[in-house]
Structure formats: structure tokens, C-alpha cells
């Protein structure tokens, strides 16, 4: 079956997998919807995107993705409200950041309409896959990788832009304990840390495994030169609350400009929560934990939304963060998810209806 | 057709592509031999390797290689001497480095016999593809990537180890002009710069494109913190000759431990060329260029062997390196390629016959 929606050709899957999915017990990003969006870059330009069945990708063994790591991605979520209307959260910010990543990785930038019309068409075709359950959503993964061939270490001449979707539950279950890293690093000054580049993630896995063996779930990265300042947690930006002030580090060429991060800053300011965007030293956090002024610590990102941190390790010492009854984390998480899921007004214009 | 050599199953290609190849006009890594070695990691272990026809790879769109950059590789060369004997150069060093890279990228380490027996079997099957022409060789590309599925940012549960080969000519044609980088960086302290990880290469493409636009072919990376010290050139380690002393920077967790690099150090020492392995400041190189004591600069790596540098740019200034009649670069290149191609004695035990 073939059709055209929003000028985009649609090749429908022969059958649906949706009846095999237990929407009451969704993991994160492990079950995939029936369709995907595919758009190829060849002969010097992005060709028209298509919706196709979710199906395997075939590549030459010399395709540069296997050798030189030219890949970038985004993470987004679609929500369905009680009237079956479908909502995205600041999708143009994801599109813009995808192109910022593309430029740094020498990947050709994508036209806005291919991204937005392609995404909307895909969501229309797979609308049944968007969960309505509280805490669940359709996780959306746009990505671009080098599909061109050859062993010369230079940018590829062909790329694939694909959007896949996966109905998903929570990224972390329960509270998270983190290790503040003092040896390994995530990114260099003048490097690609600000980009959502595949290579930024692979480099974190081994140090994270070491942290998991010590009883932590995530690593908090510090600057590679002194390890004295907190950067981000890899899959999340980091916020700390000292007394009543919410603090997060400034973005830089080492740190991802998180969309959840900047939304939280804006939300907190609108709610008259004192917010500071400035460098956070590990010393300051350790001292605050010792003298009791460290009230909260949480991660923020699309996948995890807001993920409270229950304690941290640093130099073989463990610090618990006492549980408050009313936290910024839960207050801000409710504010942001209420906006995302159309349960409240959206004074910021962040919500984007798919229709 | 199926056969067994060295305990490895061989599935032969139905026909050969070799008659389409002009062995007198070989580019670098763009024509591929008839077969490849394939070895899958699944169910917690590396399965038996097989030689198969060189053929496309099929992956799920959620395969982690597309999203999280878990990939590593090696570069090697096979040479055929006038008696049709086939030689490798220090292949066990490539094997060991592959596993060093694997560990840092949270990829399961590969058994030595799968690598060595697999490689030897592949070379036996595709022996006709090894060029005999001066300056040409069979470029060998062993690589491992994450083939397991899912959007969770964690190590994959399945991997593919593949060896492809490509009859190849020179990597660079002619002399190379380089730009000493003062803004962008290749790697972080505590990062993955010492590993042959795909992501290390993608991050270099954009700054290299900027350098190419300014008339250079390659970037010389400097440390990400001060940009005061020379690191490596991405596809090559860097040597400078000041007066009669050959100098190269020490390896670190930011710099690849190049096999050509360490062979050159040993060769130079054996030939009574004064060699120093120590930090090289950009200032020192600029001053030496100005006062005439900078006699040579060259890159060293498997693909390029030894690649003379004719000049460098730094902070909008250009420095030419005058052409000497007798250079360390050409002397050492002849010494190393004579050993590689079995034209001379090998006092170091580097050469490895494939039989």
C-alpha cells in the first residue's frame, strides 16, 4: 500500500506488531513502531523523505559509520492527551540542535521541512503507537549516519536520516546514585561534547561500567583538565539545590545544551525559584553535602525528564542526599510534564500539536 | 562452495571481481577484495569466525552502532615479495591494540586465534589481491562494531568483528602541508584518544575541512587545555627533526600508540640517529622554523607509512620547511618498507610470514 500525506510518500507495513505490545509494561526504547521515516543524502543533496515499514538497513562493510563514527541523533517524545490529540515538546529546538551537531561532525545539514513534515507524517501513520498511560510516551529517535563507502578517513558522500519511534516507559526506575568522576572524561575543550554525536556515548560506557560495579547507576563527568568542576551526566544535565537556590553549570563546547535543562531554568525563574547558571565545583557540592545545605540533586533530559539523585560518591566517600517532602525536582517535573501532556496552560509556547 | 582452512569455514564468492581492478592505478581503500572475515559476538561469547564473500551487512535501525558510536578498528598492510611470499608487519601489535581499544569502548575482547587465524585464512583465500607493485600493498581493515539493538545508552549485547581488505596505493599523493590547530581538539585527558575508536575520527573532519579550505591537507592537533603542545595528526603520529635530533611526543591517554611511530624510534636508535621522546611545544617548532634549525617534519602511520610535511601554518602565519637532499624521512621510510617487503634483513623480528 502506498499513499501521500504532507507531500511525503508512505509505504505501509503489511501487518502491525501493535497487538504484541503490553502498553502497561513498557521498557525504554526496546519495542519499535510499525514504520520509520527514511531520507537519503546522495549526489550532493537530501532526497525526498519517505515513510516505510520499520525494516533492516543494508550497508557495505566499508560504510563510514562502521569506521569513522560519523553519527548524530536526537531524542524527543510524543504525548497523547485524553482527547487523543498528539503533542510534541519544543520540536524545532531538536531540529536546530540536530543541525548544530551535523555541522560539527561534517554531516550535511538537513532542511527543516524534511524534519518537521517527515516527523508529523510518521506520527500520523503510527498514531496508535503513542501511549496514553501516565508516565509513558512515544520516544522518538531521529538520527543521521554516514552510509557512504571507503576507508579514506574523510567525510562520507552519502548519509541516511532516519526517524524511529518506540513506545516507552521510564528511563530510570527509582532514584539514582551517581559517582563524581575523577579520572575519565567525557569531552575535550574544542571537541564534540556539545554535539549529540554517537562517539560521545561509547566513550562513557566503560567508566560507567566501573561505576556500576561500585554500586552507582551513572557517572557525573567533570572537566578533563582539573576534574574540579561538574559538567553533565552523559544522558542528563545536572542540577543541584543548595539551600533554596537551584544551580546548574553553563553550557560550553563540552556540554550538551539540553532542552529539558533550559526549560527547567525558565520554569524555575517563572516560579520565583532562585536559579544560578554558573560553574559548580565538586568541592562546593561535597561541602554542602557535609554541612547539610545540599538539599537536592537531579538530572534533566528528554529520556529521563527529571531524575532525582539520592546520593553521590567522590574519592571513595559516599554522600547521601536526605529526602525532602517537597522537592524542586517533583514540583518542576509535574510542571513540565503537565505542559508536555496538555494538562495545563503553556505560557511559554513550548507545546506543539501534531495535526 | 565451502571449505575449511586453519579450522575456519570458508564460503567462496561465486565469481571474482579482480579482473575489473587496475593494479597500476590503485587509490587508497576504495576497491575491496572478494572475501571478508566475519565473527559475531552473541550470547556472551565470540562465535567461530568464517570467511564469506564480501557482501552487505544488514542491521536493525536500532543497532547501537548507529546511535552510540561503539566501534573500533585497526589498519594493517600485507605485502607480497618477488617470490610470492606474503608478509605482515607486527600483526600481534595490531591485535593487542585492538583489544586495548575494545576495553576502553566497553566492547568484549577478541581471542587472539580468531584474529590471527582468521586473518591468515582470509589472506590465503584472497592471495591474488595482494599487489606486487612498488608502493602498493593490500590494506587490511579489521573492525568491531556494536550490532545489538535498543535505544538505551548502554553497551550492546551483540557485536561484529570483520576484516576487509583493499588493494591500495599511497594514502597521500605528494608532500603534505599541515595546520597547527589552536581552537579545536581531538581528545580529552581521560578520554578515548589512545583508542582507535570511530568517534575520534568523525570529530576531526570538520576542523580538517576548515584547514583544507585554507590550503592545508591535515591538522596537527594540540593539547585541548593550552594548545601549546603538539599531539598527533589524527591519521598519523608526528616527528620533527631539529638540527640532527629526531623528536616525537610521548604517547598518553590522548595519543595513539602508533606501530609505525614506535618502529621508527627503534630504527632511528639502531642507526645512531639521536631520538628524543618528549613533549614538543608549538613555540619550539615555530622558533626552529624561524632560525633554520627545523630540518624536517613528517607523519608516520600504517596507511601513510612516512609522509613528509613541506610546511605548516600557525596563527595565520605560514612556515616552509626547506627540502633537504638527504632526509631522515626518506632514509627511514626505505628502511621500514624494505623490512616490510622482505627486501632486507629484519633484525627486529617485525616481519611475519603468512603461510
TrEMBL record, chains A, B:
PANTHER family (UniProt xref): BRANCHED-CHAIN-AMINO-ACID AMINOTRANSFERASE (PTHR11825:SF44), SUBGROUP IIII AMINOTRANSFERASE (PTHR11825)
Organism, scientific name: Algibacter miyuki
Pathway the protein contributes to: Amino-acid biosynthesis; L-isoleucine biosynthesis; L-isoleucine from 2-oxobutanoate: step 4/4; Amino-acid biosynthesis; L-valine biosynthesis; L-valine from pyruvate: step 4/4; Amino-acid biosynthesis; L-leucine biosynthesis; L-leucine from 3-methyl-2-oxobutanoate: step 4/4
Record-level Gene Ontology MF annotations: branched-chain-amino-acid transaminase activity
Reactions catalysed: L-valine + 2-oxoglutarate = 3-methyl-2-oxobutanoate + L-glutamate; L-isoleucine + 2-oxoglutarate = (S)-3-methyl-2-oxopentanoate + L-glutamate; L-leucine + 2-oxoglutarate = 4-methyl-2-oxopentanoate + L-glutamate
Keywords of this entry: Amino-acid biosynthesis, Aminotransferase, Branched-chain amino acid biosynthesis, Pyridoxal phosphate, Transferase
Protein name in the entry: Branched-chain-amino-acid aminotransferase
Its job: Acts on leucine, isoleucine and valine.
Names of the cofactor(s): pyridoxal 5'-phosphate
Lineage per the UniProt record: Bacteria, Pseudomonadati, Bacteroidota, Flavobacteriia, Flavobacteriales
Amino acid at each position: 500500500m502506498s499513499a501521500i500525506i504532507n507531500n511525503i510518500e508512505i509505504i505501509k507495513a503489511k501487518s502491525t506488531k501493535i497487538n504484541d505490545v503490553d502498553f502497561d509494561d513498557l521498557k525504554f526504547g526496546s519495542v519499535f513502531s510499525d514504520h520509520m521515516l527514511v531520507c537519503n543524502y546522495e549526489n550532493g543533496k537530501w532526497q525526498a523523505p519517505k515513510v516505510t515499514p520499520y525494516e533492516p538497513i543494508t550497508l557495505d562493510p566499508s560504510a563510514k559509520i562502521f569506521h569513522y563514527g560519523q553519527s548524530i541523533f536526537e531524542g524527543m517524545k510524543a504525548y497523547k492527551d485524553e482527547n487523543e490529540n498528539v503533542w510534541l515538546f519544543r520540536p524545532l529546538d531538536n531540529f536546530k540542535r540536530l543541525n548544530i551537531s551535523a555541522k560539527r561532525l561534517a554531516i550535511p545539514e538537513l532542511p527543516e521541512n524534511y524534519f518537521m513534515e517527515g516527523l508529523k507524517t510518521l506520527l500520523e501513520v503510527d498514531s496508535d503507537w503513542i501511549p496514553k498511560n501516565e508516565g509513558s510516551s512515544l520516544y522518538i529517535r531521529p538520527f543521521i549516519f554516514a552510509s557512504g563507502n571507503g576507508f579514506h578517513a574523510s567525510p562520507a558522500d552519502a548519509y541516511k536520516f532516519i526517524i524511529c519511534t518506540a513506545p516507552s516507559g521510564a528511563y530510570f526506575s527509582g532514584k539514582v546514585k551517581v559517582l563524581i568522576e575523577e579520572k575519565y572524561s567525557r569531552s575535550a575543550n574544542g571537541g564534540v561534547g556539545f554535539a549529540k554525536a554517537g562517539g560521545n556515548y561509547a566513550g562513557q560506557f566503560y567508566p560507567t561500567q566501573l561505576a556500576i560495579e561500585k554500586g552507582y547507576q551513572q557517572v557525573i563527568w567533570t572537566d578533563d583538565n582539573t576534574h574540579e568542576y561538574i559538567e553533565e551526566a552523559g544522558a542528563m544535565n545536572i542540577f543541584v539545590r543548595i539551600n533554596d537556590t537551584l544551580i546548574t553549570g553553563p553550557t560550553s563546547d563540552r556540554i550538551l545544551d539540553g532542552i529539558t535543562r533550559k526549560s527547567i531554568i525558565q520554569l524555575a525563574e517563572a516560579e520565583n525559584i532562585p536559579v544560578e547558571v554558573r560553574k559548580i565545583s565538586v568541592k562546593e557540592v561535597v561541602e554542602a553535602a557535609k554541612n547539610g545545605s545540599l538539599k537536592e540533586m537531579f538530572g534533566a533530559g528528554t529520556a529521563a525528564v527529571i531524575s532525582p539523585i539520592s546520593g553521590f560518591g567522590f574519592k571513595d566517600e559516599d554522600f547521601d542526599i536526605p529526602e525532602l517532602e517537597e522537592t524542586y525536582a517533583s514540583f518542576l517535573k509535574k510542571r513540565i510534564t503537565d505542559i508536555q501532556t496538555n494538562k495545563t496552560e503553556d505560557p511559554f509556547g513550548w507545546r506543539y500539536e501534531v495535526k
